Amino acid sequence: QVQLVESGGGLVQAGGSLRLSCAASGSIFSLNTMGWYRQAPGKQRELVAIITSPESTYYADPVKGRFTISRDNVKNTVSLQMNSLKPEDTAVYYCNAMQLGYEYWGQGTQVTVSS
Fold first, then answer.
1. What SS3 class is residue 79?
2. pLDDT tens digits, the chain, 115 residues: what are they?
3. DSSP reduced 3-state for 54
4. Helix or strand or coil: residue 62?
5. CA-to-CA distance for 40 and 45, rounded, in angstroms?
């Protein structure tokens, strides 16, 4: 089993920045893919960004140029730097990781961007 613990969510004004972090622990052998998803009320959970091993990245169109995903394979962490935040970014953000064909999720952290 792998546990994912997130931190860094909060309330910020439009145009501000937040940095989300996710730490993986437990039976870690090889975390092939790590990423961030988000879900706003009444909407489906959507992919925000992913990073693979080796470190290739993908960003959803709404966050391109504003968000940056990174990982530390020694510490088994993944981070999401969010700049120029918009009210549309308001959602619960979830950390995700895949290992040995299994998928793991964090508990989610609330990000609220005010106008």
1. strand
2. 899 999 999 999 999 999 999 999 999 988 889 999 999 999 999 999 999 988 899 999 999 999 999 999 899 999 999 999 999 999 999 999 999 999 999 999 999 999 9
3. coil
4. helix
5. 7
